[in-house]
Backbone:
């Protein structure tokens, strides 16, 4: 098991390296730069700025420089948020995004699996149809629609909950953004669970369990459910990585001080280092969650156990 | 032999039907059966006869669109129409089942120990811990080696035969009155099949339960059952003691089934007939494991130094169990796999030929597969399928010429030429196999490698396909390599036999010699394990 | 000659039903899926042919009608016209005595202390709402004039946006762009994914290993974000948007096709094709790709809504197609920002957007059921 984890972590290094390299050069070969503002700066100021941030050096040297710094945890200064470097920006924002994302993930997984299982067990009933219609709606309505609507109804209309901000970090502030963040994923989990559950209920070993007179609850819970969870677990990795690294949309609508906004702000402002920082952050999350999910998968399915 | 005094399962007027989008399908059309204590009743029939659905219906295991009506009484208790809850009192304790697919019938996510214990705990109470001793005892009973270790194994860690033993252990756990065995050995090799059947027989003697054996294999029935019910198209055509059915069959269908056993022998070609295909020291290796960075270091030798010479007009039968390398050998001889050794086609040394060099020779070297469902591309018409080779080998042919050849080929294999505009899924298994043969024959080959061409077919159809293959051989002077696990078919088809095990030739010789006087113990086991009608 | 005429009649060939025809039959039985199809067709007709029947263009600005709500009544309504007319009269320093609107025409009677100059009609034409004002009668020594003219009445069934553009036409245009982006990007991802997946799966071995490793690495790139970067850096043209989205959505497709190919490769008809001497490329083209079509079609119905969503996400971030062009996503984000003051800006594009995605979902589910290989 430990050797499996070490091997996987080792194979993550080249992956990260390629991700960093692709992103770095992709960005630099694009036209424009962080200081190409609408009103052009005086040439002298521009040159000074470029020199300060070493942007006047040859590209390969900048790349080597960035890599060697990044290895030591120095992801460079932000060109736009001049008071903070990239590591500090992410360090400040990440806890907010993770806390919110974690709640959303729990909500999505638990809600989705329960809804999907009910739908599968009552296949083709009104209940099934209702759950699936609602979940289709969940997948199709983008969260930048859900967000404002939630605000309008619960914050402005009914005035039950605050419209945005982190406040004291209590649940009151988190409910609306959490729902907006979780809803599409909840729908995905529900659909996945329903599909794999229906498939699991038709396998030969379920027939065996029935033929041996096991009660319906045992058949469903111990035999069908466990097998049906495998695809759900697989989806957990990309989903968790996406939720925990914050959402630009939800954080903007609810003014959450997380890292999700930096993706977009960094790109729009051509803040190279901030963009690189967020790319690396997301890539690490994806890699780590893939590993965690593979371990979990192994625990669930003896056929792919890693020993 | 068995005490036949009491009827434990009485089936009267049982009907099973399925509602499909195309209308209702009657799978079982009102049948009567009786099972008595301690006896073995065989329900025999070809695919689609409703033999399995009868039992599934009684046990409440039909697919959602299936309904069962009529009556099935277990010791007086009506099972048809019983709620699943009430049925659970009988299922798994009084009546148990084993299924055809030992690979999928067990839950892959739980240890076999837990799965065997589940019906014990459920029907008798207690904990899984308490049941463990009983599970060990059962594993011992069904002949699982090292039960103390195996009890914590997962199904994928066991072989097919062992899994079927586990299923039997599970079936015996609550000492049932009746065991329903649905094609229990169809997916297994012949030697394993014999072991499993012997095991069932000895356990039956010991515990005295009745067995309903559902099978398509008359050989098994003759050696195993006391009474037989022959089913066809959802009806029982004949019922009686095994001796009566086999010696004095009444129904035409039964007679036809009994006669369908392939018969006849093929005469060997003249000794001086030229060699058309030769493989010397054929070896095929597969790398096991190995990822992107690590080279696979373990090598599995599927075919190990096999030498084979095929003369014009000869049929060499290649016999072996699954994993013996017989199919791999066939593909290696056609140079479809990377392999080492010396190969000769006619007088041409083809050892070093690459794919491009082999291409023109392919029309003379053809291959027919086992699975008539998998070997025809489902999205092309029969005409397109059988003329595909002509595009490669006779590209100059006009459309009309190709069509004419397709008609010829279809007529030759006994199919309606009009069927060339239809799609494979519209044909039965036997017809599909004819299409596959037509695809090979249209190129007018010299050598055809037949890889289990009859194994997926019902006995009655098997005979017809064998007849066809023999006719084609006679009229075109073909040479066959006939690969099969089915000894009776090999015996009828070939004049020379090679017995393979673990990639090596165990024994070879004239068909008569091999079957009448096998020298090697393995050959003897194989022949002994095959039940003849 | 008679031969030729008779040939078709003489050969009543039994035509088989292909798997596709069977699937089509099953699909037609699925009511939800058929309803989805009809809905999609209606939405496509609405988006692409609709603009032909609406007099406004998508970039036409009506300064008099900014942010007005949806209504089936023509604009301006009679009472508003009355106000406008009174305003005109004030500007022309005349008194409005009588004002009537009948259909597209109006009549007004104006009076003044002094005789009115006929050129006062210019004041009428200056208002957006009136044109072709003419004096039809002069009374009271020129102190009372009867004028008639045309009223420009506009219909805005969906209301207008904050720039005074007709939302109906905007929604149609948004539909055109969203549907086009969805289809084109899906085609791009389909093309790349099918060829890549089929090649990787068919060749197998080390090539497959390398190709799939590449896909794995691409998976760890934060893709949505990569799209953002690409669009920000390379500009927001329509072509680029669908190319970029297509280029990031092909990974799943490649994986699905590869999986299918691996399974197909073990099927015996591929072995048969090899035994017949077909080249790899012929086998991929004739046997592998046609047999992957079922799952691929189903997957496309998943990708299209995904792409439309992704495009709308870009639009929400202000990175979609550039104004005055628009897409449903852009319209929705505009509506979300004005949700309190002008909810219709959100409601109408959202209805079409959600209906489209909903229908695609049902069609996808229907196709999955119809093409399900288990039914074969």
Residues:
């Amino acid at each position: 098991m430990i050797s499996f984890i070490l091997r996987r972590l080792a194979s993550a290094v080249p992956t990260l390296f390629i991700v960093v390299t692709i992103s770095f050069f992709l960005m630099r070969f694009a036209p424009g730069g962080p200081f190409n503002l609408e009103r052009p700066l005086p040439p002298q100021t521009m040159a000074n700025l470029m020199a300060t941030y070493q942007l006047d050096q040859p590209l390969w040297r900048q790349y080597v420089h960035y890599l060697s710094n990044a290895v030591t945890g120095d992801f460079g200064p932000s060109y736009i948020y001049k008071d903070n470097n990239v590591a500090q920006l992410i360090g400040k924002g990440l806890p907010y995004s993770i806390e919110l994302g974690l709640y959303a993930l729990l909500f999505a997984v638990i809600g989705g699996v329960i809804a999907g299982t009910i739908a599968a067990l009552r296949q083709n009933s009104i209940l099934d149809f209702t759950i699936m219609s609602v979940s289709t709606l969940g997948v199709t309505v983008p969260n930048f629609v859900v967000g404002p609507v939630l605000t309008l109804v619960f914050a402005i209309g009914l005035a039950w909950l605050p419209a945005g901000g982190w406040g004291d970090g209590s649940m009151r502030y988190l409910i609306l953004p959490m729902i907006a963040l979780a809803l599409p994923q909840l729908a995905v989990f529900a659909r996945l669970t329903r599909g794999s559950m229906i498939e699991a209920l038709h396998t030969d070993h379920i027939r065996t369990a029935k033929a041996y007179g096991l009660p319906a609850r045992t058949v469903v819970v111990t035999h069908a459910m466990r097998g049906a969870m495998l695809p759900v677990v697989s989806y957990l990795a990309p989903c968790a990585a996406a939720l925990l690294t914050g959402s630009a949309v939800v954080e903007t609508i609810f003014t959450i001080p997380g890292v999700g906004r930096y993706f977009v702000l960094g790109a729009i402002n051509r803040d190279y280092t901030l963009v690189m920082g967020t790319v690396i952050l997301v890539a690490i999350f994806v890699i780590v969650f893939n590993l965690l999910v593979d371990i979990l998968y192994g625990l669930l399915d003896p056929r792919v156990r890693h020993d | 032999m068995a005490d036949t005094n009491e009827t434990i399962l009485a089936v009267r007027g049982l009907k099973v039907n399925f509602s499909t989008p195309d209308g209702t399908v009657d799978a079982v059309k009102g049948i009567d059966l009786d099972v008595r204590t301690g006896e073995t009743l065989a329900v025999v029939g070809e695919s689609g006869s409703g033999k399995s659905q009868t039992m599934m219906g009684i046990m409440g295991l039909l697919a959602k669109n299936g309904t069962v009506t009529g009556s099935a009484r277990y010791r007086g208790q009506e099972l048809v129409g019983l709620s699943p809850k009430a049925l659970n009192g009988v299922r798994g304790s009084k009546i148990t089942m084993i299924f055809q697919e030992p690979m999928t019938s067990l839950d892959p996510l739980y240890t076999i120990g837990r799965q065997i214990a589940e019906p014990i705990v459920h029907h008798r109470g207690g904990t899984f811990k308490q049941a463990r001793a009983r599970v060990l005892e059962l594993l011992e009973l069904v002949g699982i080696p090292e039960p103390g270790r195996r009890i914590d194994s997962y199904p994928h860690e066991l072989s097919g035969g062992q899994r079927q033993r586990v299923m039997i252990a599970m079936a015996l756990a609550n000492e049932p009155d009746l065991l329903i065995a649905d094609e229990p050995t169809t997916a297994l090799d012949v030697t394993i099949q014999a072991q499993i059947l012997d095991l069932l027989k000895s356990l039956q003697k010991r515990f005295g339960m009745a067995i309903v054996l559902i099978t398509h294999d008359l050989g098994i029935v003759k050696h195993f059952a006391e009474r037989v019910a022959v089913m066809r198209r959802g009806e029982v055509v004949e019922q009686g003691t095994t001796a009566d059915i086999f010696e004095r069959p009444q129904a035409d269908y039964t007679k036809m089934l009994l006669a369908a056993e392939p018969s006849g022998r093929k005469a060997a070609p003249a000794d001086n007939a030229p060699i058309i295909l030769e493989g010397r020291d054929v070896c095929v290796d597969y790398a096991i494991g190995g990822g992107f960075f690590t080279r696979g270091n373990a090598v599995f030798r599927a075919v190990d130094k096999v030498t084979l010479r095929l003369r014009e007009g000869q049929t060499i039968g290649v016999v072996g169990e699954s994993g013996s390398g017989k199919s791999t050998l066939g593909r290696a001889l056609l140079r479809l796999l990377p392999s080492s050794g010396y190969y000769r086609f006619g007088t041409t040394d083809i050892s070093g030929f690459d794919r491009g060099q082999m291409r023109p020779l392919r029309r003379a070297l053809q291959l027919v597969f086992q699975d008539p469902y998998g070997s025809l591309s489902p999205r092309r018409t029969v005409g397109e399928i059988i003329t595909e080779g002509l595009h490669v080998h006779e590209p100059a042919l006009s459309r009309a010429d190709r069509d004419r050849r397709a008609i010829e080929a279809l007529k030759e294999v006994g199919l309606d030429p009009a069927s060339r505009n239809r799609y494979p899924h519209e044909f039965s298994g036997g017809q599909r196999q004819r299409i596959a043969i037509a695809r090979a024959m249209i190129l007018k080959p010299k050598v055809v490698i037949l890889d289990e061409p009859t194994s997926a077919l019902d006995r009655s159809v098997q005979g017809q396909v064998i007849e066809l293959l023999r006719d084609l051989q006679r009229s075109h002077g073909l040479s066959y390599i006939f690969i099969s696990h089915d000894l009776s078919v090999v015996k009828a088809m070939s004049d020379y036999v090679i017995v393979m095990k673990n990639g090596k030739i165990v024994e070879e010789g004239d068909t008569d010699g091999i079957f009448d006087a096998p020298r090697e113990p393995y050959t003897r086991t194989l022949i002994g394990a095959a039940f003849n009608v | 000659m008679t031969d030729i005429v008779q040939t078709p009649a003489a050969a009543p060939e039994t035509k088989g039903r292909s798997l596709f025809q069977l699937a089509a039959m099953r699909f037609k039985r699925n009511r939800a899926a058929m309803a989805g199809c009809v809905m999609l067709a209606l939405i496509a007709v609405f988006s692409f042919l609709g603009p032909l029947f609406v007099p406004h263009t998508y970039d036409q600005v009506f300064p008099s009608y900014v942010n007005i709500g949806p209504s089936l009544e023509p604009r301006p309504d009679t009472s508003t016209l009355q106000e406008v007319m009174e305003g005109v009269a004030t500007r022309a320093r005349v008194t409005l005595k009588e004002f009537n609107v009948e259909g597209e025409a109006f009549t007004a009677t104006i009076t003044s202390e002094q005789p009115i100059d006929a050129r006062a009609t210019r004041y009428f034409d200056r208002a957006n709402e009136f044109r072709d004002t003419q004096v039809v009668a002069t009374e009271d020594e020129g102190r009372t004039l009867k004028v008639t003219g045309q009223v420009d009445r506009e219909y805005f069934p969906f209301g207008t946006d904050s720039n005074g553009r007709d939302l109906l036409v905007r929604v149609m245009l948004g539909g055109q762009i969203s549907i086009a982006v969805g289809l084109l990007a899906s085609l791009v991802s389909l093309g790349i994914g099918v060829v890549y997946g089929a090649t990787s799966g068919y060749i197998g071995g080390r090539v497959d290993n390398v190709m799939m490793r590449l896909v794995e690495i691409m998976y760890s790139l934060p893709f949505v974000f990569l799209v953002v970067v690409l669009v920000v850096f390379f500009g927001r043209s329509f072509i680029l948007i669908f190319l970029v989205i297509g280029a990031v959505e092909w990974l799943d497709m490649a994986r699905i096709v590869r999986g299918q190919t691996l399974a197909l490769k073990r099927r015996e008809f591929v072995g048969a094709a090899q035994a017949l001497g077909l080249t790899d490329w012929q086998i991929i083209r004739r046997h592998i790709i046609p047999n992957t079509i079922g799952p691929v079609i189903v997957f496309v119905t998943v990708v299209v809504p995904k792409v439309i969503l992704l495009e709308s996400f870009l639009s929400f971030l202000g990175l979609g197609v550039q104004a005055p062009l628009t897409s449903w996503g852009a319209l929705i984000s505009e509506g979300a920002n004005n949700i309190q003051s002008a909810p219709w800006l959100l409601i109408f594009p959202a209805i079409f957007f959600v209906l489209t995605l909903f229908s695609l979902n049902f069609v996808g589910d229907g196709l999955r059921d119809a093409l399900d290989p288990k039914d074969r």
Q: What stands out?
A: The first strand of chain B starts at residue 7 and ends at 20. The CA atoms of residues 301 and 404 of chain B lie 45 Å apart. Confidence is low (pLDDT under 50) at residues 290-296 of chain B. Chain B touches chain C through 42 residues (CB under 8 Å).
